[in-house]
Amino acid sequence: MKELNKEKKVSKSKKIILLLILFIGIAFASISTTISFNGNVSVRPNSWDIHFEDITVSDGSMTPLVAAVIDENNHMQINFGLELTTPGEYYEFEVDVVNSGTVDARLSSIDVVGFTPAQEKYLDYTIEYVDGSKIKIGDTIGASSKKRIKFKLEFLYDIEDSDLPSEGTTNTFKLNLNYIQNKKNDGEEKPRPPRPEKPTPPPEEED
Questions:
Q1: What is the reported pLDDT for 87?
Q2: CA of residue 86 relative to chain centroid, distance
Q3: Rounded to whole angstroms, how far apart are CA atoms 151 and 63?
Q4: What DSSP element (H or E) covers 93?
Q5: For residue 17, what is the enclosing H or E element?
Q6: SS3 state of residue 161
Q7: Which residues in 107-144 are b (16+ Cβ under 10 Å) and which e?
Q8: Buried (b) or exposed (e) across 11-45, using 16+ Cβ within 10 A?
Q9: pLDDT digits over 168-192, tens only?
Q10: DSSP SS3 for 90
């Protein structure tokens, strides 16, 4: 089987178009407080705001059909589109994940939708922090802070004609980063309060 190389273009009949979405999903666990005894209690209001800011496309990236932009109506979503023509080309960008709220956030899951085993033969993607460290379940972003991440999607170099779809195709690929409230005692067993002692009954009076 003849290999494709970087100089060889994918034929128009096998044109591959990818519509990609990078999305932050958020969930907020409600906070409840029970106060016993008499007293005055003030509870500071909490806010929950996780979103993208400051997107920058890396030098050397391929020319996209649709450049990566943060959705102006939903700052938790980045949309972009690519037409793959040359093995070895890639598209890469950096973006801040910002926690503008008053509650620490924790990454609870990373969901990938639409990336099939067939696509894995000719596509690869990575998502990591800009310092090269891996993004992991359980990573936190403190209140009023941010972390900068890097996403890269690459059209693999060492592929064969048989790895590509038999005809042109358009696919939608979604990657969701799901953040929830980071509780201080997540993963720890809550200590039970001591059970109150039963009162001792008075002695029975003799007749």
A1: 87
A2: 28
A3: 16
A4: strand 90-99
A5: strand 16-27
A6: helix
A7: bbeeeeeebeeebeebbebebebeeeeebeeebebebe
A8: eeebebebbbbbbbbbeeeeeeeeeeeeeeeeeee
A9: 778 888 888 999 988 765 544 445 5
A10: strand
Q: What is the CATH number of domain 12-28+46-181?
A: 2.60.370
User: What pTM was computed for the model?
Assistant: 0.74
Task: Give the DSSP per-residue string, 45-114.
Answer: -----EEEEEEEEPTTPPPPSEEEEE-TT-TTEEEEEEEE-STT-EEEEEEEEEE-SSS-EEEEEEEEES
> What's the token pair of residue 124?
């690869």
Residue appearing with tokens 């666990």: 29
Q: What token pair was written down for 15? A: 């044109």
Q: Count CB atoms within 10 A of the CB of residue 206.
A: 4
Q: What is the DSSP letter of 166?
A: S
C-alpha to C-alpha distance for 80 and 61, rounded to whole angstroms: 13
- Residues 4, 163: Cα–Cα separation, whole Å: 10
8 A C-beta contact, residue 6 and residue 157: yes
pLDDT band of residue 145 (cuts 50, 70, 90) is very high
Give a three-class secondary structure readout of 108-158.
EEEEEECCCCCHHHCEEEEEEECCCCECCCCCEECCCEEEEEEEEEEECCC
Pairing type for strands 66-70 and 105-113 reads: unpaired
Distance of CA 198 to the CA centre of its chain: 51
Domain boundaries, the chain: 12-28+46-181
Q: Is the separation of the CB atoms in 175 and 149 below 8 Å?
A: no
The whole-number pLDDT of residue 184 equals 65
